[in-house]
Amino acid sequence: MPEASGPVSRALRTAPPDQLAEAAEAVLRQTLGAVRAEVFVADYRFSGLWPVLDPDRPDGGPLRAHGVAQRCFSSQQPVLDTVDDGRCRTYLPLSVWGERLGVLMVELPDAPDAVTVASAEDAAGDLAVAMRAADRETDRYRRARRRERLSMAAEMQWDLLPGRSVRHGDVLLAGQLEPAYTVGGDHFDWSVDGERLTVTVLNGTGNGLSASLLTAVTVNAMRNARRSGGSLVEQAELASDTIFYQHRGERHVATLLLELDDRQGVVRAVDAGSPHVLRLRGGRVTPVTLEQQLPLGMFAETRYAVQEFGLEPGDRLFVVSDGVYAAEPDEQEPYGNRAMARAMRSTRLQPATEAVGTVMRELHAYHADADLRDDAVVVCLDWRGSSRSDDVVGQ
């Protein structure tokens, strides 16, 4: 059986950015003898998988909750499903650098051997990279992802995100925003550089477009400092000064800045009136206590200090905004008192990419599936522990 990866890669490089699904299908028909191929993308809430070729097609619906495609997406492993006349549908994860985009389905005339599955996997990897690159050049894949119209604020927030998950060395990081289609100010950002992973989580203030604009200014100020080689302190101070001189203290942003040394498992942190940090270790959820400093932009020329804490192999960190921690639907106790910890403990056998969805689903259930009253962000970071690490600093 000929390999598909090389021909698919060449076809994708020459295809228009909005025609990647068609280009991949044509090559898979030629090289693997596929009957057909389809590309499914995950929506903004990760509630389902939807066909790119026809995102409004009715049969996109059955893939929303369960099924073979969803199993492939959740497990990030190929899944084979035999259908009529002995044909076999091979479902393959569309993922790049740890970010899950969707699923590629390749229908073959009979059950594939291991070499064919490996070739299809390589083709799916090439397609995922191409789709990630094409996302700035076409709206096609974003249209397929949305199940309803985004507010202007949400449009800006999703466009500002670096992605929804990333794998870097011994780290898997994932985040989720809610309400997905109307989120205003809460946000997360990250950057990988060598053995360092920088993560920022913002607990935005205000509502709608004004909150989104404030978040955009804050994120870009921190990026400007970071991309210029600035430390966590310099990132916080530039963002704080930028916000203050724009709003003279009337607007400010609670922000957590983290920098993880992937080799040693040491986290450096600047807590600027930040979202909450919790650690899941050995089935126990405990808060990570940091000295809170002033939110960004509250006063002119505010200066910040760095704190450190250590991770042990297998540790999981959750960072949640007030919209998660302090949620009090129908006069119940805050979600962060007990229910949130139960949800986090239930994720210990899930990867970070699944864990953020679990915590968010439990938050929606806590609200009895009513609309969230505040923006909510959940970020989950797993550190598997590096064999290169000689010692770990504990807290």
TrEMBL record:
It comes from the Bacteria. The keyword Hydrolase applies. SMART domains: PP2C_SIG. One of its GO terms (molecular function) is protein serine/threonine phosphatase activity. Its EC number is 3.1.3.16. It is an enzyme of class 3 (hydrolase). Residues 168-383 form the PPM-type phosphatase domain. It holds the Pfam family SpoIIE. Keywords: Hydrolase. This is PP2C family protein-serine/threonine phosphatase.
